[in-house]
Design a protein that fits this description.
384 residues, alpha/beta, FAD/NAD(P)-binding domain, eight-stranded mixed beta sheet, 28% helix, 26% strand, globular, binds flavin-adenine dinucleotide
Length: 384
Amino acid sequence: MGAARIPDLDVLVVGAGLAGLRVATGLARRGHDVLLAEARPSLSANIRTTGIFVHRTLQDYSFPDGTLGPPIRRMVLYPPGRRRPVELVSAREEFRVGRMGLIYEAAGEQALRAGVDLRLSTRYAGRAGGVCHLEGPRGDLRVRARYVVGADGARSRVARDLGLDRNRQLLVGAEEVYPIAARPGSTPAFHCVLDPRLAPGYLAWVVDDGEHVHLGTAGYPTRFEGGLRRALDDLRADPPGLAGVRRTGPVEQRAGPIPVGGLLRRISGPDGLLVGDAAGAVSPLTAGGLDPCLRLSDRAVESLDDALRAGGRGSLDGYDGRALRRRLTGRLGLRTVLAHLRAPWVHEAGFALLRTPAGRAAARAVLFHDQSFPLESRPREAAV
Ligand SMILES: Cc1cc2nc3c(=O)[nH]c(=O)nc-3n(C[C@H](O)[C@H](O)[C@H](O)COP(=O)(O)OP(=O)(O)OC[C@H]3O[C@@H](n4cnc5c(N)ncnc54)[C@H](O)[C@@H]3O)c2cc1C
């Protein structure tokens, strides 16, 4: 009996989060032969994001009808003791919360329509001698791919196998989501509690867009006294901004790691590249990863398309994390400074500053800005 033939592909994409779905669909639309392997049994299972899309994403990408919550213009920042919060209101829509299950499912349909071979319940288990090993529901599968794309999240196995950089600085985040009763006249709001003991930036959030509440917390794993679950319990017991809000449906739990060390330097090599969280494409200041994820994925599609059109011998060197990271220097520096300001009195002093016109202007520049990731805008197009 001869050995089973190993299928040859143009690209194996590992991970069907927003990054993997976008890369796989973009490449299939350009005529390439793509297999997308996802360990989860369904695209809307085990979601790991709140799904807040920022203004810049909403401007540059369109979403299918009914997949975004109402606009949020109001943000309330709380010091650790929660006294005298600072309210910022924007004239434009700053945030909208994606109904992520619907968005992932819509992206999956687009991928299938483009011709992607989407395999659910299929785990990438490693690569040796150019052959990738996948564990699927009907047994093991071996494939040879000209390029492998690591879209497998913050703790990327593909990054390791391709000898690329890996995320070292990770926060852990967890949240609960539930539907709420309509409250005529209420204003959607994003409440953030800052706590320098856990990590710089916002560490506990309550997002109330008038249809759903997202209640969550994130920080360095070693800094939670009593663990992440306990921090979430404490927040649930005393959530800012939720007086009079009535839950109307089941609670969904979400959790996951968040890379905050900034875009990795070496995100491509001769055999493939990294996108999304695997590439560290998350804002070092706000921990937002959805906008970077879309933009970097689009850049990856262009690089892979060029390389494949050169007969698979093209170089991916132009897909360069080091060059992009240079444009993030200011934000990375600010995060490093904030990471050292852990004493509560420093934050109280920071809040005193935030209450001044100059402080509010600085906060607006960080929170209501259009610079989430240093890749230029493209003509408006569909996100999924
Ligand atoms: C609690 C939390 C809240 C967040 N909220 C926001 C927010 O509101 N706004 C924002 O902009 N960003 C937010 N982020 C960050 C943002 O969600 C991520 O940056 C973004 O979703 C990353 O997408 P991705 O496709 O790179 O990774 P993921 O969505 O993590 O997808 C990776 C996929 O790879 C699959 N996978 C992993 N290993 C394998 C394997 N070996 N084989 C096959 N499949 C594999 C996983 O199952 C997963 O589906 C949040 C993160 C967390 C954890």
